[in-house]
Every structure is written in structure tokens, then in C-alpha cells.
Amino acid sequence: xxxxxxxxxxxxxxxxxxxxxxxxxxxxxxxxxxxxxxxxxxxxxxxxxxxxxxxxxxxxxxxxxxxxxxxxxxxxxxxxxxxxxxxxxxxxxxxxxxxxxxxxxxxxxxxxxxxxxxxxxxxxxxxxxxxxxxxxxxxxxxxxxxxxxxxxxxxxxxxxxxxxxxxxxxxx
Length: 172
Prior knowledge:
Number of strands: 0
Largest sheet: none
Number of helices: 5
Radius of gyration: 31 Å
């Protein structure tokens, strides 16, 4: 323990989990590791999501999205637990020993990278879904136009154009 940290620790009653970095430091590391674990879970789900989007498998996509929601909920829960530390991050980092500080910073960096990666994958999937939606909309517009053209000539959409006898080509 550094001299500065020893002095700080001596000012705090030993074992008080809310003020003693020897107690809350390892707890914070475990919470950050939990967040990273959920981020890694989201990264893995991105691969399944990409596959579901590319194949147009709506059921698989909905399953993946439900699993993602579980990971996101857990991230939010852990985030609430560490919020008191986050708002005082600089002073928190000043209280912990260098090895623990380095581990925390490593975890925070990895969490940030994972979240950024998931965001990029989500943006690509969103664009692919938008393109699929536009393609389906165009196909539906073509079908509607064909039906409208058939109906304009007195037929039905099933291809019975001219069956009503409204237009006949007869030799006299």
C-alpha cells in the first residue's frame, strides 16, 4: 500500500464497505468484470443477429433480441450498482492501489470497446433491415400496380382479364 493510500485508509474505519477501498475495490472490479461479461455476451449475440437478419429469419431475430434484452437489463442493473463510483471516478481511482487501478482501467477500456463494436454491428444490421424493408415495399408496389392494371381492363387480379366479355374481338 502506498504511503498516500495508507494515510487515507487510516482516516477510514477499517472494514467499512462504503468507505474502505480495500473492501469496495475488489467489489468494483467484480462488477466491472460482470459488465464486460455481459458485453461479450452481446458481441456473441451480434453474430447470431447478423445471421438472422441476412437470412430473413424473423423468428430467430426475435429470439436473439429477447436474449439481448436480458444482457442489457443485467448491464443496467450492474450500472446502477456502480453509479456511486462512476460519479466520483477520479477520486475512486486515487484511493485504490495501482494494480487494482490498472485492472479497473483495463476493464473500463474493454467495456467501451465492446459497446462500440456492438453499436457498429447494430448499425449495419439496421441498414440491412431497412434495405430489406424497402425491397419488400417495392415488390408490394409492383404487385399492386399489376392488380390495378388488370382491374382497369375489366379483369380480376387472378389473370381472368377479358373474361367478363366487356371487350371482345369478333369478326363480323
